[in-house]
Amino acid sequence: MSLHVITGAGGTGSPTALLLAEAGENVRLISRRGSGPQHPLIERVAADASDADRLTALTRGAASLINTAMPPYDRWPAEFPTLAAALLTAAERTGAGYVMMGNTYGYGQVNGRFTEDLPMAPVSVKGKVRAQMWSDALASHQAGRARVTEVRASAFLGAGAGSLYNFTVPPLVLAGEPAAFPGDLDVPKTWSYLGDVARTLMAVTQDDRSWGRAWHVPSTAMISVRDLTVRLTEIAGAPAPDLQPMSTAELAAIGQTSPIMAEVIEMMYSLDNPDLLDSTVTEQTFGLSATPIDDVLAETVKAFSPHA
């Protein structure tokens, strides 16, 4: 059995910890509150992952260091660099393979499909943060100081997903109430199920082909926000959704009292345009595939039911 250290016990960290533990691997799950799933092979530790010395001590002897932790959305520029530096330092000091949980922000605005060979060309502050994190990690890998890889996902979907869609749409439309979502509701989007994210994170820790490059999570059918929501209500047996677009002005008004929603404004380019994640290379390399969209939506319905 190997030891895998995971930072962050949220929507991606916890299912990854469970997958590894159920496969017979030892897991040390680090979060500020020491939370996470209970399993005989999961050791839950309360610690600050941005403390490089503490994180190094907790990572010694581990085969991999998987980061799924992140600061609050509105504090990325101020806090993510310190966290990223601590993680990379711990990987360099211990030799643990460093697996970064990332997204598509670093690519910027792309006409066509997102593929892993695209250069980093961010057009947002948060995209620049992500791109710099990957650039620093890749430089360390190329210099022989660490083994690094990044798993990139699109918009999260599924029970427990801390996503803009989950926050704003299912709780309302499944109750028969009107809902609003920013951007163009009819352009095709790719959706990354948390279970598929966890399977990809696990796969890259166990294959030497992973290191030195990024991998895209096998993601669910390319479907617009509107069509996704219609299917969600059909599966739930709920009334047809009353879903309206949320304008930038409306976002700004909400942002007066919600710093998180205010941060969505700079990402409107990604909400107004198609977001098509190509995961062909990951699927062919690791033998992974995306969970059917109806299965993901059925899980979402169950999570948002009154008795959940």
UniProtKB/TrEMBL annotation:
<protein>
    <submittedName>
        <fullName>NAD-dependent epimerase/dehydratase family protein</fullName>
    </submittedName>
</protein>
<dbReference type="InterPro" id="IPR001509">
    <property type="entry name" value="Epimerase_deHydtase"/>
</dbReference>
<dbReference type="InterPro" id="IPR036291">
    <property type="entry name" value="NAD(P)-bd_dom_sf"/>
</dbReference>
<dbReference type="Pfam" id="PF01370">
    <property type="entry name" value="Epimerase"/>
</dbReference>
<feature type="domain" description="NAD-dependent epimerase/dehydratase">
    <location>
        <begin position="5"/>
        <end position="208"/>
    </location>
</feature>
